[in-house]
Write a structure and sequence with these properties.
By secondary structure, the protein is α/β, with parallel strands linked by helices. 27% of the residues lie in helices and 28% in strands. It is elongated. The mean pLDDT is 95.
Length: 371
């Protein structure tokens, strides 16, 4: 099979992959995106809360903190410029008992270390002025948190990328790869198998990033992290929306908790929870609604019986197993794995959507510097 030569191959047409492809196309790089599914963003990118995060939870100087804060500003600007539906609705992080109140101050201090200085501590009475149906003993107001239509956003990125020369090859799984002195060979399956020799390869395959890396000969297996699946289930609310803003309970280890969000049709959804699974399965178990009722009623006691309906689920690409706390994004280049021109993006979970344009800019900068 003859090799077609190209500057850059991006593997994965989720929000990270197409954001990277769009950025590279605008920089004049010849780019092709290889996607095993038949459309953009069919997994993690379209199975999340669609929240524009402020960046308040992540450790100072972590990639998550840096990319979330920078990405949020880029994302709001992009949505305004390209007509992507979005709303800067704000968020309340709530303490539902007195023991949790000090954690709100800790969260505010962490946000300040990340450069976020617009958070405001509220008393219970002040919080109810914003959301009368809310139960809490105190709350933290995040004015810069918002929501967006993630599919419209990805379509806008796709349109820009393609308008600037990017080709997106759907139904084109990567089946093998090989590092060569003059580039990286990528072989694909599907109805029309072919082979490419790319100067650069960006592995942005999300849940499948580790299996893709294992398929590229020359990548040391010991540099590829293990992967774990943390499933997040969502339930939708039947009836009148109780809140106009996002409402988050205080985060627990590995999760931001079962929170309340509203979309552009007025539909309220609650989630995600955290369900560790061994395989990718998007079915929502209706029996999990008991966890939801119990958790939601801590901040919305008026939730009626029978008001929750199974919605959808997503899978977080975790790099650490259950019980090992937080993780950061992992962006591996030649310094880590020794293969020139290859970037592996691992563990791009929340706030990946918010961070997408910042991650894309960082990736383009790495390629421009040849590192």
């Amino acid at each position: 099979m003859p090799l077609d030569h190209i500057d850059t191959v991006v593997i994965g047409a989720g929000v990270i992959g197409i954001a990277i492809a769009r950025t590279l196309a605008l920089a004049g790089r010849e780019t092709i995106v290889l996607e095993s599914a038949g459309a953009i963003g069919t997994e993690t990118s379209s199975r999340n809360s669609e929240v524009i995060h402020a960046g308040i939870y992540y450790p100072q100087n972590s990639l998550k903190a840096r990319f979330c804060v920078a990405g949020r500003e880029r994302l709001y600007a992009y949505c305004r410029k390209h007509g992507v539906p979005h709303k800067n609705c704000g968020k309340l992080v709530v303490a539902t008992d007195d023991q949790q109140v000090p954690k709100l101050a800790e969260l505010q201090n962490n946000a300040q270390r990340n450069g976020i200085d617009d958070l405001r501590l509220l008393t219970a009475a002040e919080a109810r002025e914003y959301e009368p149906e809310l139960h809490c003993v105190a709350a933290l107001l995040s004015p810069s948190t918002g929501i967006l239509d993630s599919h419209a956003y990805m379509l806008a990125l796709q349109g820009e990328a393609e308008a600037n020369g990017t080709v997106i090859a759907f139904n084109t799984p990567v089946i093998a790869g090989q590092a060569h002195p003059n580039g990286i060979e990528i072989r694909t399956g599907g109805d029309h198998p072919y082979a490419l020799l790319a100067r650069n390869v960006i592995n942005a395959a999300g849940l499948w990033a580790q299996p893709i890396a294992h398929k590229i000969r020359g990548v040391p297996p010991q540099t590829i992290p293990p992967r774990y699946f943390a499933k997040g289930n969502y339930f939708t609310l039947t009836g009148r929306p109780p809140f106009g803003r996002l409402v988050y309970p205080l985060a627990t280890a590995g999760s931001l908790g079962i929170h309340s969000t509203v979309d552009f049709t007025g539909q309220v959804k609650f989630g995600p929870d955290t369900e560790w699974v061994d395989e990718i399965d998007y079915k929502v178990d209706p029996a999990r609604d008991q966890i939801f009722y119990e958790t939601i009623r801590r901040y919305w006691p008026a939730l009626p019986d029978g008001a929750l309906t199974p919605g959808y689920s997503g899978i977080r690409p975790k790099l650490v197993p259950q019980g090992q706390g937080a993780q950061d994004f992992m962006i591996q280049g030649p310094d880590q794995h020794g293969v020139p021109g290859l970037l592996n993006l691992y563990g791009i979970e929340s706030p990946g959507l918010t961070s997408s344009l910042a991650i894309a800019a960082h990736t383009a900068d790495i390629l421009a510097q040849g590192r």
